Amino acid sequence: MKALRLSLAVLVILSTVLIANSIFSQSNQKWDDPNLDRIPLHLLKQSQQGLLNYSPTSTNSSVVTGADGYDNFYLGTDFAEPHISVNPRNPLQYFTGFNTNATYYTMDGLNWGRNNPTFPGFTMMGDPVTAYDSLGNVYYDNMYGDGVSAIYGTKVSVSSNNGLTWTYVSGNTGNDKNWIAADQTGGPFANYVYGTMTNGGSCAIMRSTNRGASFQVVTSLAPHGLPGAMPCVGPNMVNGNSGGCVYVVTNSGSSFNATYSFFVSTDGGATFSLKSQQNFTGYVGTNVGGRNSVQNMRTRPYPFITADNSFGPFRGRLYLVYANNQPSGDGNKPDIFCRYSTDQGATFSSPVQINDDANPTTHHQWHPSIWCDKQNGKLYVKWLDTRNCPTSDSCDVYAAFSTNGGSSFSTNQKITTKNFKIDCISCGGGGTPKYLGDYDAVTSYGNTSMLVWADYRNSSFGSYTAYFPDYAMKLNPTKTYAGNNDSAFVRVIVPSVKSYSNYVKFTASVDTLPAAGTIQLSFVNGKDSLTVFPDSVTLRVKTIGTVTPGVYGIIITGKGPNGIPVHQRIQNFDINVATLNIGTNRDGVCDFKVNSVQYNMRQTMTFNLGSSITLQALSPKVIGGTRYVYQNWSQGGDTTQTFPVNAAATYTANYKAQYRLLLNSTVGNSFGGGLFYDSAVTFQFGVNSRFYTTGGLTYQFKGWTGVGTGSYTSPDSSGLDTIRNIAISNAIVETARWVQIQVGVQNIGTEIPNEFKLYQNYPNPFNPITNINFDIAKSGMVQIKVYDVLGKEVETLANEVLQPGRYKTSFDAAKLSSGIYFYRITTNDFTDIKRMIVIK
Fold this sequence. Notes:
Elements: H1 2-23, H2 25-31, H3 41-49, E1 62-65, E2 71-77, E3 83-87, E4 90-98, E5 102-106, E6 112-113, E7 123-132, E8 138-145, E9 151-159, E10 167-173, E11 176-182, E12 193-199, E13 202-208, E14 216-221, E15 226-236, E16 242-254, E17 257-265, E18 273-278, E19 286-288, E20 291-294, E21 297-299, E22 304-307, E23 318-325, E24 334-341, E25 352-353, E26 365-372, E27 379-385, E28 394-402, E29 413-414, E30 420-421, E31 441-445, E32 448-455, E33 462-468, E34 470-471, E35 474-476, E36 479-482, E37 487-494, E38 497-498, E39 504-510, E40 518-523, E41 529-530, E42 535-544, E43 550-559, E44 566-575, E45 577-584, E46 592-594, E47 597-599, E48 603-608, E49 612-617, E50 621-623, E51 626-633, E52 640-644, E53 649-664, E54 670-671, E55 675-678, E56 683-687, E57 691-694, E58 697-707, E59 723-726, E60 732-741, E61 746-747, E62 757-758, E63 769-776, E64 780-787, E65 793-802, E66 805-812, E67 819-826, E68 831-838
Parallel strand pairs: 36-44, 45-53, 53-60
Antiparallel strand pairs: 1-2, 2-33, 3-4, 4-5, 5-6, 7-8, 8-9, 9-10, 11-12, 12-13, 13-14, 15-16, 16-17, 17-18, 19-20, 20-21, 22-23, 23-24, 24-25, 26-27, 27-28, 28-29, 28-30, 31-32, 32-33, 34-38, 35-37, 37-42, 39-41, 39-43, 40-42, 43-44, 45-48, 46-47, 46-49, 49-52, 50-51, 51-53, 53-55, 54-56, ...
């Protein structure tokens, strides 16, 4: 009954999706305006119905570690377009939001939770953006509307505890793409919060002067006909080096020749002045349906800006990062560029190309985002990059930083642990070009940044984060064993780094303390930190006394300055137990038993040392046309065996596959069918003779018709392939083709003739029946056929194996017209032909 309920629930969900897609298909055409960057309407509806998102208060986050030891943090499945911020008062606290209203937070820089803000009475429409003020309050800005076709503006939720609890207020006014920024400077407008939003042909500016208790729309800026207006806050270097210089860049003109208009406010966002208008970008990839597209992924040359709030040598610089084709022109491949301004956006430096691949014109680099660190002015940039894919249809996330005010950038580093296909067919974004998100983000605290992006490696809208710069972390061995009053050692290795030049300090703890005895952890020679890479430290795990048998997790954590980057590995430590890995070489197919309990999948099981275990391989296992037959256990021994557990081990029951030949024949003259044969081993099947007589009827074999990969089908209908040798690797069907032949041969007498002879028919001429006698001197195949004067065969009178003797047969010409006909006898040793006349 429970399964039935689940099935009905799935049907209801699928029906709801199909109905929603049908109802809103017409609206979606209007919704997908190339001058608006909205989440596709069908994804919006699915998100609002909760069909694809996880629970708003839980997350299935996990750490995805690459073979090289680097981590990506998988948060869940959402709808792309993330934004991220870090608490300036606590570098372990990050907050990020994805479409349409999916948020995640971490309190320790490692483990992620979620508690989505609620907006009672409002339908949220997506494009979430985030910001922290200098007091540690986090602001979450999200669009709202009618849920069908209209966006009215934004709502803002505020949390003083990193997203554990929320309050919300009204935000901005507009119909597309919002951004938000907070004043973290120490100037007269400290902790003011600013927002921008596309509102028709202008950009609406909102601000809060009371730490998010309320927001007011204070002005609008034009021109702004394209989405992507963005604010940032920096120091006012023109007026006493104080804080509170608010920048806004708007986006107008053509999608393929955008104009960036730079505005500045030095009075806390009350008024703005236009500083300059710049035409830095053209095409990004290819024009597809009025949108910039990279491999059928829609994208846009958003103007991403940030300002240097640090007290470093480049304090006050305004930075711009964007993607642009190089060489320019439709269909070429884009690169990532940075420019900076030292006069509040009035003028900008020459472009600096950030991507450092050897052949940039053969690769796509796009989707940039930017952040300037408040502590030290370090400028971080991330983007998508196809340099590792010769066909350019898959990409990685790359990142770099600048420590000299954007004049040059560090060696690019690959951040993703696995690349992903750009045009994700199964993600469901839809459209041409396809929606896979129009932006993502990066934030930082000191010498460490955190990147967030949408990733399609699992054929869905995966939500991921990662640190940069970063270090790899590995353990050797990955599992340890010990008895009482014993020691084991684990090497904690940093095999490589990505632009990382700080220390890593390691700590260790036991996940569960034993009921008896003690587990003592210590680093050999007191060395628990690394400053040079590659290098390692060694952890000693010591048992004291009689420790309760079990598998204990040794949690080893590595941290950099300020506690970031933080990575963690868990070492399984067997004490007075052994872990056995038990299964078959046909996982999920063949069955086995452990202590009389039957399993179909490989098991990892723990037993006390000295305990007894019984393994049994079950054989055979037949599934359709395949039979699996037990061969041996990997360690030897019988099909069923009992032995004591003395150490960790792996046991595998090996099975070979056999495949069935199903042989169909309408006469009982075949062999080799209905049996199972070893894979790829030659065997024989066939019919015993080409002619078979039963019930007074004679049949002639004409060939085989095979079905299934590797089966055999006769090339003709000669019937000479009665026996075949074949090897198969899957079940097949062979059908013997037979035809009935009309024969009436009679033996006359017991005399054995000395020679072959064909006699003249009698009577001759005749109407309509005549008799033909013939002598057979040697056993073998005998064939007698009748032909007309043109040589066309009109009848077969004999076609069978005959023993030596005298025979006769008859010929009925009732269906033939008058004329001359010929009859011929053919054996292996004799051939003759004679003429006969039909008169009617």
